[in-house]
Design a protein that fits this description.
Elements: H1 2-21, E1 28-31, E2 34-38, H2 54-76, E3 81-91, E4 95-97, E5 107-109, E6 117-126, E7 129-139, H3 156-173
Parallel strand pairs: 2-3
Antiparallel strand pairs: 1-2, 3-6, 4-5, 6-7
Helix pairs in contact: 2-3
Length: 174
């Protein structure tokens, strides 16, 4: 009887810990001049973790992309300007594949037939007034082409796609 009670207590404490790990429905990340609302990430096409707890992976993904977008946006935006985005879909580069018992984790296979994709709306604010508004559906079909430096930076393909969008779409409008 004591063993059953201990097992039950363990299961309940693990369930409570997992529940505490749950991410908010629409998390918001901010860094410098960038604010991103991640609208219904559970509905995103592919932000699956390959070995990390999903909620931690999502938090790391959101914070990394926000930080990387801020790095480029701060070069482009003028003083008193801010970029606000509402991300409605993300499909990370690659595709998750099961390992069929070889390991406990799935693997992300990066091939050119699995490009990164993002759908979002955005606005540029200057002194809290909206000066530019738009919606984007980005996809980088040539994400594996060109010269690449070997890097272990996370989400490099998604960052590159957003950086190019900032340079080609936002910078000319300012």
């Amino acid at each position: 009887m004591k063993i059953q009670s201990l097992i039950l207590a363990s299961v309940l404490s693990c369930s409570a810990a997992w529940a505490a790990e749950e991410a908010p429905v629409n998390p918001v990340t901010e860094d410098g001049v960038v604010k991103i609302i991640w609208q219904n990430p559970k509905e995103f096409r592919d932000i699956k973790s390959s070995g990390e707890i999903q909620s931690r992976y999502e938090k790391r993904l959101f914070e990394t992309l926000t930080k990387n977008v801020n790095k480029e946006a701060s070069k482009i935006l003028k003083p008193n300007q801010k970029l606000e985005m509402t991300m409605t879909d993300v499909d990370l580069a690659g595709d998750m594949r099961p390992t069929f018992g070889a390991t406990t984790d799935d693997l992300r296979v990066i091939k050119d037939i699995y490009p990164p994709r993002m759908t979002f709306s955005y606005q540029i604010l200057e002194n809290d007034k909206v000066i530019i508004v738009g919606e984007e559906k980005l996809s980088d079909m040539g994400f594996l082409g060109g010269i690449h430096s070997s890097t272990d930076k996370p989400f490099v393909y998604e960052t590159k796609m957003l950086t190019e969008w900032l340079k080609k779409t936002i910078a000319p409008q300012l």
